[in-house]
Design goal:
By secondary structure, this protein is an alpha/beta fold. The chain has three domains: 235 residues, Rossmann fold; 149 residues, Ribosomal Protein L25, Chain P; 115 residues, Ribosomal Protein L25, Chain P, CATH 2.40.240. The protein has 13 helices and 27 strands. The strands form seven sheets. The protein has a seven-stranded mixed beta sheet with strand order 12-25-26-27-23-24-13, covered by helices on one side. It has a seven-stranded mixed beta sheet with strand order 21-18-19-20-14-17-22. A four-stranded antiparallel beta sheet has the order 4-5-6-7. The structure holds adenosine-5'-triphosphate and magnesium ion (MG).
């Protein structure tokens, strides 16, 4: 148990009280209950970290339970992706992989029991009639004309529903609770409906399916989940779950609600994410701009950074919106420690060193990661022709411009100081290459030149660099909360500039051996990771997150005092 009481969130407080009073026999069992109807997103990541995290903290267990009660939208593709995502985040459910559909026989039995004890009835009303008699939050509902039908009749009809005798939409099973309850969920909610649909696990065994509300609480109960953590929208369902638990006299799991995670520029609705995929706004569920776990993985976010983010966000009782920059901060913090530094030029401009011997290549040592003392050095090739970033040269620079300009000097990172002597342009005035001379005695680490320069820029050797594709990403939407405007569809806020593809960037040759998902810091540019579209012939990098202020830091470091 934690030593600092005051640092506990409200869920941990409840759990510690329950442990102290031995309410659940001293154990903590939580579950993560996804519906396999889409890929997991950042909100689910939060829920996973919470459920698995809190159980880990108190020596408990977490079940993975697929809430697969709706055969129409569910699919094994989603089941597989969900499992892969949870594992990737760093959590494990051992052999406790459960499915609400495995409980269908038990739920059916319980439904029968409820009919027999007069707590449920078959209603022949249409969906519209049922909706029409529900009332409103301020007006009571009306009782169905079938509410008082004899139990034997309901029992017979329910069994025949199950046997497939009636078409869809003709009958449902409803709980007999209270049509005047101020809680709409208590107004004789539907427990079962007829659906001639193939289920991804049970096949065609069933043609009636339990409603989520008649499956969720019971599933928790069957698994003896002690603390059932769910998002706030289920607060109003809790009295109904408790009612079922009491009616059936089964294990009472304790439901605790917390606020859903909302993050600026990120959608946390599978339905909306599915639309982005189906309507072609993104390339798929794992598009690096998506708020899905698979998208974040492809983008280069690490499990540790997402866990750190979930931790920092904490657990709230009220809805709020978290800044996207907090997530980016967590990603940078982790990558800063683990990403190898390399040089890559995204918008290449050729630089020719006129006084460097043609055909010569020398290898210069440079740090792999200044933040990691064990990362060591690597050697990078240097030669007469280099590429530098086009915007590191200005023909007509403003006053405090410390990069390259005609007659100005700059240091090439881990190499030499160069001075610009000439600018070569094509007929239309576009700069084709720049010529410089270098100072052999200004070599990094052994600089005896006495020359002082204020700027350091990155570069790659033209003949050795690898040509690669770089995909730059920006926010997927032009506004932080695209779903907030009731007048406009969220897709209207799609950011047309959210993907920019650079076809011919240049990167130092050492990355050829990189593995998938390896993270790099392209000096002065940002963190990048290798995309699965990469092949042996052609590397493709994704921008994970940009840097902040490294240029100033690097310049300060390379400059001889
Ligand atoms: P969606 O609206 O995207 O379909 P959902 O809540 O219906 O989300 P489920 O698969 O039912 O998706 O969710 C599984 C678990 O994840 C639930 O316990 C749910 O409360 C939790 N969860 C879903 N979205 C969030 C979120 N934004 N923040 C925290 N927890 C979430
Ligand atoms: Mg749901």
């Amino acid at each position: 148990m934690a030593d600092e009481k005051e640092s506990l969130n409200f869920i941990e407080q409840i759990i510690e009280e329950d442990l102290a009073s031995n309410k659940h026999g001293g154990v903590v069992i939580t579950r993560f209950p996804p519906e396999p109807n889409g890929y997991l997103h950042i909100g689910h990541a939060k829920s996973i970290c919470l459920n698995f995290g809190v159980a880990q903290k108190y020596g408990g267990r977490t079940n993975l339970r697929f809430d697969d009660t709706n055969p129409v939208t569910e699919d094994t593709e989603y089941v597989d992706s969900i499992k892969a995502d949870i594992r990737w985040l760093g959590f494990d459910w051992d052999d406790r992989e459960y499915y609400a559909s495995d409980y269908f026989p038990q739920l059916y039995e319980w439904a029968i029991k409820m009919i027999e004890s007069g707590k449920a009835y078959v209603d022949d009303s249409t969906a519209e009639e049922i909706a029409g008699s529900k009332g409103t939050p301020t007006e009571p509902g009306k009782e169905s004309p079938y509410r008082q039908r004899p139990e034997e009749e309901s029992l017979d009809l329910f069994k025949r529903m199950r046997a497939g005798e009636f078409p869809e939409g003709t009958r449902v099973l409803r709980a007999k609770i209270d049509m005047t309850s101020p809680n709409m969920h208590m107004r004789d909610p539907v427990m079962y409906r007829i659906k001639f649909a193939h289920h991804h696990r049970t096949g065609d065994t069933w043609c009636i399916y339990p409603m989520y509300d008649f499956a969720h609480g019971q599933s928790d109960s069957i698994e003896k989940v002690t603390h059932s953590l769910c998002s706030l929208e289920f607060e109003n369902h809790r009295p109904l779950y408790d009612w079922f638990i009491q009616a059936l006299d089964i294990y009472p799991s304790r439901q605790i609600e917390f606020a859903r995670l909302n993050v600026e520029y990120m959608l946390t609705s599978k339905r909306k994410l599915l639309r982005l995929v189906n309507e072609g706004f993104v390339r798929g569920w794992d598009d690096p701009r998506m708020s899905t776990i698979s998208g974040m993985r492809r983008r280069g976010y690490t499990p540790a950074s997402i866990r750190a983010f979930a931790d920092r966000v904490g657990i709230a009782k009220r809805e709020n919106v978290i800044e996207f920059s907090l997530l980016e901060y967590c990603v940078r913090e982790d990558l800063n420690k683990i990403a190898s530094r390399v040089m890559a030029v995204l918008d290449p401009l050729k630089m020719v060193i006129t006084n460097y011997p043609a055909g010569q290549t020398e290898y210069l040592p440079t740090e792999n990661n200044p933040e990691d003392p064990d990362a060591g050095l690597r050697e990078i090739p240097f030669g007469k022709e280099l590429y530098i970033e086009r915007d590191d040269f200005l023909e007509d620079p403003p006053k405090k411009y410390f990069r390259l300009a005609p007659g100005k000097m700059v240091r090439l990172k881990s190499a030499y100081i160069v001075e610009c002597t000439d600018v070569i342009k094509d007929a239309s005035g576009i700069i084709q290459e720049i010529h410089v001379r270098y100072f052999p005695e200004s070599k990094s680490g052994n600089d005896t030149s006495g020359i002082k320069v204020k700027g350091t820029i990155h570069w790659v050797a033209a003949t050795k660099a690898l040509d690669c594709e770089v995909r730059l990403y920006d926010r997927l939407f032009t506004v932080p909360n695209p779903s907030d405007d009731p007048q406009r569809d969220f897709t209207e806020f799609y950011n047309q500039e959210s993907l920019q593809v650079i076809k011919h960037a240049k990167v130092e040759p050492g990355v050829a051996t990189a593995s998938l998902r390896q993270s790099f810091q392209f000096l002065r540019k940002g963190y990048f990771t290798l995309d699965p579209d990469s092949s042996a012939e052609r590397l493709v990098f994704n921008l994970t997150v940009t840097l902040k202020d490294t240029w100033a830091k690097m310049a300060a470091k390379e400059q001889p005092a």
